[in-house]
Amino acid sequence: MKIDFKHRQSAHCENGVISNLMEYHGFQVSEPMVFGIGSGLLFCYIPFVKINYAPLITYRAMAGFIFKRFAKRVGITIKREKFKDPKRAKDRLDQNLAKDNPVGLQVGVYNLTYFPDEYRFHFNAHNLVVYGKDDDTYLISDPVMQHTTTLTAEELEKVRYAKGPFAPKGHMYYPVAFPKTLELEKAIKKGIRHTCREMLAPVPIVGAKGVKTVAKMIRKWPKKHGSKKTNHYLGQIVRMQEEIGTGGGGFRYIYAAFLQEASTVLNNPSLAELSQQMTEIGDQWRDFALDASRLYKNRSVESDGYTKVADQLEAIGDREAAFFAQLKKAI
Amino acid sequence: MKKDEVPQDESFLKEEHGKELCYAVDEEGNYTTALSSGWDVKTIALDNALKVIEERVADAKQRVLSGHTSPIEYYMEVCKMELPILASYVGMWQWRVKRHFKPSVFKRLSQRTLQKYAAVFDITVAQLQHIEH
Asked: Of A7, A213, A271, B58, whose CB has the highest number of CB atoms within 10 Å?
């Protein structure tokens, strides 16, 4: 059994699942549009939560939030289900497929057999769509993959019941009710305002201020932790920023694409100009990643290398603070 | 990033995995998507993270062989896990799992408990008891 579902690759899994499910139900919404309306862009530094033995740094909203906000702002209703019993989770999935309803699933990455081994970490907030079943094999549309793929029933159960932080617990979701027409204008404005508010938050670990705090920390780390640990921390920042799913530049390019599209929808030329600025900011993030990677590749101990990347980051922080203040006014 | 600047470096993404999607601007300044085979900067960062894990595995192995910890900690590292993740998989409190790291406690574990760990690590009980297997 195979549902006529169009697989379109996206940069980030959550946007991709939403965008593709919307398309299936007859609504054209691009990935950047979903990301922007759902206020996906963020910067947050949480020193007391460690991931892979390095402080948590994120460039986007928490898993699930983008979909939640997007749904609320454009007025669609989503049904979400979690199951204690894996057998019931499977039955419900099968029922939906039998009704020609493709569903989104939250899964853990560690046991996703079609990922390269090197990418398989215990990360539990990945999303994919199941769009059919062939005997005991499920047809999978994983938005970050170029092509569709498959998982056996056993493999699928394993990833749906991955354990640890953000354990999916069989989480399944799909839209059930839609408005007659999608009214994007209001939703876009709400999404932008929300992002501006977060990026300009008067909190030292969030938004533009958070970026500057990390810059400050990079100056301190070599003395406090030695170059080995500092390099590990820097590597972690670069991974969060550039690893599959960000579309490059820590989601800044996706956001720039959103602003460009929003400029047309809202007929607001200043957003197009701001989109260009955002692209430049994305380029700055990539330059930072490049220089940071040189540091830990050469294992250079000279501390002015760290000063240089810290300077770069501080400049980004200043620029983002100015940028979002401007964006807030433009809307 | 311009479309023709989208990096096409070698990475862990092999032919069968396909490429990844990036956002970039075309000649007219319009946003579009482009496929990337990988970027050295990312590969180095990931490689770095994997090396840290390798070091942790080697270190854990040494400590098992010298009788300072049990194979459970070693396999936890092999599976890229941390204590909270392992505890969640076997359904025990973290302090209990940590206690099982003690070689003297590990020796006295019941078959059932050993089986639980072995299942999580996807190995046999014999492999769990002798890490050289």
From this structure: A271
Integer-rounded Cα radius of gyration of chain B: 22
Kind and range of the H or E element at B36? strand B31-36
Residue A312 forms part of a structural domain: yes
* Domain boundaries defined on chain B: 3-38, 50-129
Partner A contacted by B45 (CB < 8 A):
yes
Both structure tokens of B61: 């192995």
Per-residue pLDDT of chain A in tens (331 residues, 90 and over written 9): 899 999 999 999 999 999 999 999 999 999 999 999 999 999 999 999 888 889 999 999 988 899 999 999 999 999 999 999 999 999 999 999 999 999 999 999 999 999 999 899 999 999 999 999 999 999 999 999 999 999 999 999 999 999 988 899 999 999 999 999 998 999 999 999 999 999 999 999 999 999 999 999 999 999 999 888 999 999 999 999 998 788 889 999 999 999 999 999 999 999 999 999 999 999 999 999 999 998 887 765 566 889 999 999 999 999 999 999 999 999 8
Which one of B3, B6, B21 would you mutate to disrupt binding with A, by most A Cβ within 10 Å of its Cβ?
Answer: B21
- Of B81, B82, B75, whose CA–CA distance to B61 is shortest? B75
Q: Do A246 and A167 reside in the same domain of the chain?
A: no
From A111's Cα to the closest Cα of chain B, the distance in A is 11
Residue at A229 is within a domain: yes
- Which of B3, B12, B28, B41 would best serve as a mutation to test chain A binding (most A beta carbons within 10 A)? B41
Out of A11, A114, A145, closest to residue B23 by CB = A11
Closest CA to A281 of A317, A311, A240: A317
B50-129 folds as 434 Repressor (Amino-terminal Domain) (1.10.260)
Enclosing domain of residue A122: 13-37+77-177
Could you report the predicted ipTM of this complex, rounded to two decimals?
Answer: 0.92
Residue B36: strand pairing partners: B20
Is residue A219 assigned to a domain? yes
Q: How far apart are CA A252 and CA A279, in angstroms?
A: 7
